[in-house]
């Protein structure tokens, strides 16, 4: 089967699209107007969450996109998440909430790995669903994961698995057969578990730390806390050319340093904290001894200052002409009305300090996410613009506030011990471990695995509830082998080995053939008896040869006190005991790390407790 070639997406970028579930009755202009209005409503709805989130590289954004190349008009965007994959899953949470609050929309989301939502639920997918058959089939609708099904005998809803439906076709089916397209509970649970904890998880993912930074940086971060991200990235990805600008700090002189609280994401803090760096002597940055109680604050501030200086050194000073106030923008009034409708100001009195702070944050968000500008400023240009707009730096005032700073967060979460990993694993699979502690389960699991018939696509996992029995037509296999080995003149047809959903028809054909073969079973039984006797004789000869070697000493034999064996007689092996003891020895050699034995047992659904006996 031929599938259209997938477009190549940039690495570490997540792309998301929101479609109108029913747009066939709207004209192009009506669709554009509706989607544009929805963009404003959505951004106003999620603004309280986005304003407190610090993105690794790029923020969540929504823009109108007209119809193109068979993709209907939609609103969407893309976000580069870099090293912080949590940004990607936060976007999944946002899409879940958006489709729940705006039921006329259905969302698609993918990254360079493709349908990463299906990857998260890989253990529970139906057999027909794979990277080739999943295109344009996975949607988030009404807050739940939906998968456009494949046609089968039990259901006429869906598309054949070898057909890639168009987006419009998939949306039409989703709107008329929502229940049939709903993903299975296990698939939805796997995805829901990955985004569990939001929106509380936003604050838990932040880290507040004391930093000695130049007063200019403290002023910039007070207005735009999100600019800490490009500064950390500039320092983290620095090169010798970047550091030339840091020999003398022209924008942020070190002699204006003040102690302040800086908010990072945990990923950004880890990147800054774990970097080993010694500043240039000409820079003016000197660090106290490591034993100094404020050493970490000085070191973090020094690194952060280098990042800000690098950003500003790469751009020119922007025009001193001030921007038009956001109140002049016709969209601002509607945006503010949506914020008030969603209780953004939380009852704060207009004119109060808190109300002014929230309004300032809303203005910054409006400029970045709502208003589409022809020329987008770089982070360095934004920093220089903020420095121009702010009043004369009140260094003394900032120093007076040092004694009033709240306590910084502990960074003990950076130190992950083996006990922490075992505890996390125990929480994730507590129910499975309770059933898997029995050593009998190890033996039974291996036997089930070895006795299970598998397809040409790979081994079936006997513990998987989604695994279906694989039915084989012996005649078709024999015919295919004859063709492959040149026994027949016909060419080998790939359909001879194709694993379809039509296994029920194959079963009926096998039953008919079995009935036809019953008449000639007498001769077959005679031939089978002769073959079995020959095989038994061959095995006896092998046993006699192995008796003269030491290979038998590596196995444990059955202990039976009632029956005494004659000298030289082969004693039967305790297969279960040998299997379990060898697996335990392999696990012990892995020393708690991943390896063949642990991977095999986990694939079989068997989870063993940690080894408490070092001997």
UniProtKB/TrEMBL annotation:
Entry protein name: Ecdysoneless homolog (Drosophila)
Location of the region described as Disordered in the Swiss-Prot/TrEMBL record: 490-532
Compositionally biased region (Polar residues): 521-532
InterPro entries: Ecd
Lineage of origin: Eukaryota, Metazoa, Chordata, Craniata, Vertebrata
Gene name of the record: ecd
Biased composition (Acidic residues): 492-511
Pfam families given in the database record: SGT1
Domain of life: Eukaryota
Annotated Gene Ontology cellular component terms: nucleus
């Amino acid at each position: 089967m031929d599938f259209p070639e997938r477009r190549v997406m940039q690495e570490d970028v997540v792309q998301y699209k929101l479609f109108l579930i029913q747009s066939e009755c709207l004209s192009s202009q009506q669709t554009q107007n509706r989607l544009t209005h929805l963009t404003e409503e959505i951004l106003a709805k999620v603004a309280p969450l986005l304003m407190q989130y610090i993105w690794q590289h790029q923020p969540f954004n929504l823009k109108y996109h007209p119809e193109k190349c068979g993709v209907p008009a939609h609103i969407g965007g893309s976000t580069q998440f870099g090293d912080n994959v949590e940004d990607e899953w936060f976007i999944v949470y946002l899409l879940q909430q958006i489709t729940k609050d705006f039921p006329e929309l259905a969302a698609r989301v993918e990254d360079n790995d493709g349908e990463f939502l299906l990857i998260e639920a890989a253990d529970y997918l139906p057999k027909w669903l794979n990277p080739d058959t999943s295109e344009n089939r996975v949607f988030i609708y009404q807050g739940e994961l939906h998968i456009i099904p494949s046609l089968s005998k039990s259901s006429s809803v869906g598309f054949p698995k070898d057909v890639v439906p168009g987006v419009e076709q998939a949306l039409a089916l989703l709107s008329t057969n929502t229940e049939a397209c709903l993903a299975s509970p296990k698939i939805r649970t796997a995805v829901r578990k990955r985004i569990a904890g939001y929106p509380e998880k936003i604050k838990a993912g932040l880290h507040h730390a004391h930093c000695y930074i130049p007063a200019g940086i403290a002023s910039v971060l007070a207005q735009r806390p999100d600019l800490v991200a490009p500064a950390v990235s500039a320092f983290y990805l620095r090169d010798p050319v970047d550091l030339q600008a840091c020999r003398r700090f022209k924008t942020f002189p070190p002699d204006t340093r003040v102690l302040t609280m800086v908010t990072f994401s945990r990923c950004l803090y880890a990147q800054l904290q774990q970097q080993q760096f010694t500043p240039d002597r000409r820079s003016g940055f000197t660090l106290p001894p490591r034993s100094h109680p404020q050493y970490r604050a000085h070191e973090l501030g020094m690194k952060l200052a280098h990042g800000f200086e690098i950003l500003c050194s790469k751009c020119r000073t922007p025009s001193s002409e001030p921007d038009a106030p956001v109140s002049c923008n016709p969209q601002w009034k509607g945006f503010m009305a949506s914020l008030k409708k969603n209780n953004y100001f939380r009852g704060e009195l207009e004119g109060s300090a808190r109300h002014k702070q929230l309004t300032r944050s809303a203005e910054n968000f409006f400029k970045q996410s709502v208003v589409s500008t022809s020329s987008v400023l770089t982070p360095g240009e934004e920093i220089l613009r903020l420095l121009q707009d702010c009043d004369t730096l009140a260094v003394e005032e900032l120093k007076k506030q040092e004694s009033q700073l709240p306590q910084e967060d502990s960074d003990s979460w950076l130190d992950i011990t083996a006990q922490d990993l075992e505890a996390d694993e125990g929480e994730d699979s507590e129910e499975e471990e309770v059933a898997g502690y029995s050593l009998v389960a190890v033996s039974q699991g291996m036997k089930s695995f070895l006795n299970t018939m598998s397809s040409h696509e790979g081994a079936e996992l006997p513990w998987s509830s989604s695994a279906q029995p694989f039915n084989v037509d012996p005649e078709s296999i024999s015919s295919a082998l004859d063709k492959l080995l040149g026994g027949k003149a016909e060419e080998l047809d790939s359909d001879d080995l194709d694993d379809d959903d039509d296994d029920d028809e194959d079963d009926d054909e096998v039953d008919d053939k079995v009935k036809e073969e019953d008449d000639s079973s007498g001769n077959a039984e005679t031939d089978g008896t002769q073959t079995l006797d020959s095989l038994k004789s061959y095995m006896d000869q092998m046993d006699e040869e192995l008796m003269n070697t030491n290979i038998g000493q590596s196995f444990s034999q059955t202990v039976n006190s009632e029956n005494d064996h004659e000298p030289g007689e082969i004693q039967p092996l305790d297969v279960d005991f040998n299997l379990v003891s060898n697996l335990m020895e392999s696990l012990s050699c892995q020393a708690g790390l991943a390896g063949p034995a642990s991977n095999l047992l986990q694939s079989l659904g068997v989870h063993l407790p940690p080894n408490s006996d070092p001997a």
